# Entry
Amino acid sequence: MAATEGQLRYTAPMRKPIWMSTLLAAALAASMPAGATDKDELVIGMTQYPSTLNPNIDPMLAKTLVLDMARRPFTAYDVQWQMICMLCVTLPTIENGLAVLEDLPDGKQGIAVTYAIQPKAIWGDGTPVSTKDVQFTWEVGRHPQSGVGAAEFYRRAYKLDIKDAKTFTFHFDKVTYDYNGLGDFNVLPAHLEAAAFAAEPVEYRHRTRYDTDSTNPGLYFGPYRVVEVKAGSHIVLEPNPTWYGDKPFFKRIVFRAIENSVALEANLLSGAIDYITGELGLTLDQGLAFEQRHGQKYDVIYKPGLIYEHIDMNLDNPMLKDGGVRRALLMALDRQSISDKLFGGKQPVAATFVSPLDWVFDDALKTVAFDPEGAGRLFDEAGWKRGPGGMRQNAEGQKLSFELMTTAGNRSRETVQQVLQAQWKQAGVDIRIRNEPPRVLFGETVTKRKFTGMAMYAWVSAPEHLPRTTLHSEEIPTQANNWSGQNAGGYASKRMDELIEATEVELDRAKRKALWKDMQELYLADLPVLPLYFRADVFVLPKWLKGVTPTGHLNPAPLWVEYWRRVE
# Structure
């Protein structure tokens, strides 16, 4: 599953003078949890607050950053972009015998993959992490109205065999190239969550104890556990005494949500926070300016990664359903100029959803070029001709007009948004800006496809991450599936479905890369979303903070928080 770095609707705040941001920083500092300045405490600033703490509902990056300190996935990608075991003992492979091909009743071939849970893994209330939790999580995921994402994973994992308290086997109905990855399977504590789910599965997303009893130690088994939650403000973590790995250094970690990125920087300079996380912190333009002014006092790390900034379009909108209109919208944008002027050319323009850093990237593919004249011809052909004031309208006098949404308070995004609005106006397209706080945009508006026009945000993915959840027609969020899909635009292409399904089961790397090429070409032809650029994350660390290693993909630095240290 990919993750949104954030997702909706309220008027964008006016740009504040820096002195107003400083006053805001002082006010936030006054509301900090007690002891925030101790040397054994780390205060992290990020631009979003999670819409939920349940690991399987709403794939929001803000939640991932917190939970990666408080739990561990079975498998993850490390800083070298290689899959490793975390909660499991040994990564199953066909070669080591823990993954075994098997014939299915319908004559097709599946695979049985066996995992062993870390023997010392214990929930924070002393209950062992066991196959009871695996069984429960699997049952929740397979329920059609649970609201859990990664529906395709639970469909493919059609059978579960429990070997003993710590060993289990998933039987999958197909052999995929990432057959041993359990990145979409986040184990839940059955002894705490079962009652919330059994009461009424369709209401589980509202009754999960991760939100109704967030500080219950039994919800966490990682190096830290959540001990304090103030919705929209901060989350506090302290060491988990049942953690089985290396002892973490900090006695207290505070995540502070400061949704205005200017205020985020002011909080760092005032001492209200220690560290701005790169995954959800300053934008590249802010980072470059910050390093020029304060680089001698902080370590500034730039990490290019698999972070795809794009514009989702609601394809139920009749105007956006027209592929010619979508292409004209993209041709009317000077994306290279945006990258050069705002980001120093350090954020490459995206041709499709595949990053040039990924081995499956098709380097022969050409990005859609800035071509205002060509865009005008396409608009004309689609029936949208210039009318009064140069704005486009159809024969009935309806204006070519869209609403463009993004995360409120993100200064860089709001700047890009204004540039897009101006460039589209030159092409005769009317754009109305309406932004929302990230927890609303991602937790409600995009998730439930409530945006009427366009929504600008980013997907963060793993290496060679198949876009099933974002592009397959079966992943369109609906009330029937309790909004569990991630194909928020509503893209439905039989050919794309076929390519995704064929790529998924192709084990030969060369043949698989050819399928990826076809997938990228189709994406570029259909333009289900408007590609913008691939982002570089900016990590701003105090000189004394060591051990933070950016990854550039879906599994972020906090997964290795036990190695973070304060070194004076």
In short: The longest strand covers residues 298-313. Residues 150 and 496 are 18 Å apart (CA to CA). The first helix runs from residue 18 to 30.
